Amino acid sequence: xxxxxxxxxxxxxxxxxxxxxxxxxxxxxxxxxxxxxxxxxxxxxxxxxxxxxxxxxxxxxxxxxxxxxxxxxxxxxxxxxxxxxxxxxxxxxxxxxxxxxxxxxxxxxxxxxxxxxxxxxxxxxxxxxxxxxxxxxxxxxxxxxxxxxxxxxxxxxxxxxxxxxxxxxxxxxxxxxxxxxxxxxxxxxxxxxxxxxxxxxxxxxxxxxxxxxxxxxxxxxxxxxxxxxxxxxxxxxxxxxxxxxxxxxxxxxxxxxxxxxxxxxxxxxxxxxxxxxxxxxxxxxxxxxxxxxxx
Length: 295
Ligand SMILES: [Mn+2]
Prior knowledge:
alpha/beta; 10 strands; 31% helix; eight-stranded parallel sheet; binds manganese (II) ion
């Protein structure tokens, strides 16, 4: 029960406190940016998303529903393990494994993209056949960088070793032409020529029924999403990103989701708000109740 005359609570979407046991979606804020190479600042990302999310109208015309009663539980921010990225991944993996064991959906807020490695490791302890769908401007397919195998630039190389297959969408920056054999890459040119819905249908064809979705916000065009460490021109529009998720949700089961790489710019709130809304819509398309839901 919320007293009168108070602003929304300091949790994701400003929802009423619920018992963790009753929750369906567990938000895991991870303010971690230890391996960035260009501009740092993603450690402030989770807090900015949560703050923005408190100011959202919870009825969504896109979903045709208010899904705020679904059972969102916001964990406290995870302390970074700075001893090594490997240890940080281990910490995240344990947490994600636990959330999945209890039949809940983990929603990770970054933080740098490296956290996806830990999340996917955690998923792999519970699931055998699953795919990772990556939305990103960058392929992140290097085997190592600066003598480390756990870097934002090596995320998909590590993921490729764990998941059965993966698909990368919106790519427009890559270190090499060749990709690992179980990864299908959809460059931005293909998105332009075929349209995002056709790409989503193709991704659905080439991936397992159960998917882990990782959204690096730099997949979006910098005009809409300037608050990222490594911006690339010619990205997706927000609407296209939503159509992609909506289309994928028609045939896939979501087993985990992360939204990463938000590096907030002071006084520029729109990108933070965009990220919050994206989280809400993504959950809604996959598991929300109401029109257009796949409950
Ligand atoms: Mn990226």
